[in-house]
Design a protein that fits this description.
- By secondary structure, the protein is α/β, with parallel strands linked by helices.
- It has two domains: 121 residues, 3-Layer(aba) Sandwich (Rossmann fold), CATH 3.40.50; 94 residues, Winged helix-like DNA-binding domain superfamily/Winged helix DNA-binding domain (Arc Repressor Mutant, subunit A, Orthogonal Bundle).
- The protein has eight helices and twelve strands.
- The strands form three sheets. A five-stranded parallel β-sheet has the order 2-1-3-4-5, sandwiched between helices.
- β3, α3 and β4 form a beta-alpha-beta unit.
- α6 crosses α8.
- The longest helix has 18 residues.
- The N and C termini lie far apart (39 Å).
- The model has no long low-confidence stretch (mean pLDDT 86).
- One of its GO terms (cellular component) is protein-DNA complex.
- Pfam families: Response_reg, Trans_reg_C.
- Keywords: DNA-binding, Phosphoprotein, Transcription, Transcription regulation, Two-component regulatory system.
Length: 223
């Protein structure tokens, strides 16, 4: 497994590089987002570990740029920022997971293995699914409705995908949080309801309501 680490703190990067090499991973280090961007133009990696606080372009901007360019490599964000809003910002930019510093190396290793498994599962999935007049293309990260493209943010698309893959089934808010955000957010958080509202605005038509609220439980996409 080829990993690119984007980290400017030599103490942390030395710790991660040494630990991953001892566990059989091939790892390359870039101390800035700009160096990482150039490296990614010439090399492919199985996974990226990106610090947020970087010189020049920060880790969130780098993540957003990679997703804009349709780079689907799994991304694990490292950060000393632990507030929920910071985690949401990173995940909305297209990151797959978020680990707060300081961390135990075994937790980092477990998260990398989970991302690796998730990526391998996706290789066997169909590249598109349809519900009613909606067509989701997972390779191209696109959604069309009656042939008309609908623009979704990376997090909106991931939420839509989860609902489509569980269509005609009730999913709880907690299930959505775990599957789409990959973190145990405060169960009192309304982030799921907010993003459901975003999706409804974009895909629900007056004659066709796809996303239904199941009071006291969660949501169901009918199709």
């Amino acid at each position: 497994m080829q990993i690119l680490l984007v980290e400017d703190d030599t103490r942390i990067s030395d710790f991660i590089v040494k630990g991953l090499q001892e566990n059989g991973y091939a790892i390359q280090l870039c101390p800035s987002a700009e160096e990482a961007r150039l490296c990614l133009e010439d090399h492919s990696f199985d996974l990226l570990i990106i610090d947020i606080m970087l010189p020049g372009i920060d880790g969130i901007q780098l993540t957003r740029l990679l997703r804009y360019k349709k780079n689907r490599v799994p991304i694990l964000i490292l950060s000393a920022l632990s507030d929920t809003v910071d985690k949401i910002q990173a995940l909305d930019a297209g990151a797959d997971d978020y680990l707060v510093k300081p961390f135990h190396f075994q937790e980092l290793l477990a998260r990398l293995k989970a991302l690796q498994r998730r990526s391998s599962y996706q290789d066997f999935e169909d590249n598109s699914l349809s519900v009613g007049n909606l067509i989701f293309n997972f390779d191209q990260y696109t959604l069309t409705q009656d042939g008309r493209p609908i623009e979704l943010s990376p997090r909106e698309f991931k939420l839509a995908r989860y609902l489509v893959e569980h269509k005609n089934k009730v999913v709880t808010r907690r299930q959505i949080l775990l599957a789409v955000w990959g973190l145990n957010f405060d169960t009192n958080s309304n982030v799921v309801d907010v993003y459901i509202s975003y999706l409804r605005t974009k895909i629900d038509e007056s004659q066709q309501q796809y996303i239904h609220t199941v009071k006291g439980i969660g949501y169901m996409l009918k199709g």
